[in-house]
Amino acid sequence: MTPSSSAGNVRRETDGTLGGLGEFGLIGRVTSGRVQPASTLLGPGDDAAVVAAPDGRVVATTDVLVETVHFRLDWSSPEQIGRRAAAANLADVAAMGAVPTALLVGLACPPTTSVAILEALAGGLWAEAQSVGAGVVGGDVTSSAQLVLAVTALGSLEGRGPVTRDGARPGDLVALRGRIGWAAAGLAVLQRGFRSPAAVVNAYRVPEPPYAAGPEAARAGASAMIDVSDGLLADLGHVATASQVVIDLHSPALDVPSRLVDVGAALGTDPRHWLLAGGDDHALVATFPPDVLLPFGWTRIGAVLSPGAAEPAVLVDGRPYEGGPGGWDHFAR
Prior knowledge:
Helix content is 31%, strand content 22%. The chain is α+β, with helices and mostly antiparallel strands.
């Protein structure tokens, strides 16, 4: 996000839209007065930012969020959309056992987009980043037919090795930190045209990933970890495939909150499906060697088994899940 002094880029805001304010006017508006963390050595205003990497390594991840595919402005406020976009990336950093340090944001939208909407969206990005001690250090703005956000998150391993998906071993236990099923329930409510109960709708609008639990799990010796973005079964399926193991979930360990029971009854849906296949909560699920004392807040929910002659898979109580799709697939038909 680099303002320019070129006369061709100087505009005067006349109608409250991005077209009236201009690209660099918007960048100046959303970056002015923002406080960066100590890890930001050079923030917005130059050709690139400079972020400290104390041990010489940087964890990097990116997500693209498209209006009507990943969010809707009639379901969420711009600030909530900004927080949600940041959370999706910051949770990926935490799932590697790292501490988030910075966000880079690419924004594409029509020139008729309200500046107030974009300021609120940027405010949400800043707020979520600052909640974990990270900064928004740069990015880009361009024109498009619809609103698109591309967010890149950076993180520090603080001298530790990354916790990857391929480290699970037979005999490991599987543990969960954070809530699951809530965002899926909220999405189901919104899709039916309702806006309450607020607890589940807001869980979809603004997830609450347990960011600090990622580095805590790494320090405790987690062998593999992933964030639950597409569904517990789907995401653990990535771990099973990468590690060439079978993961068996124990359904009694997955407590169904009474609020989800009530929403499920109202919508005619088994709430356990939201826990097993619902995404967007960005909880963390990890495997640990059996002799590891689980960090505070982690709950054991299953075990890692040898695949034997079977293919890597995720089972529920020893059997394949038959309650429907195991998670979100962008290109499923």
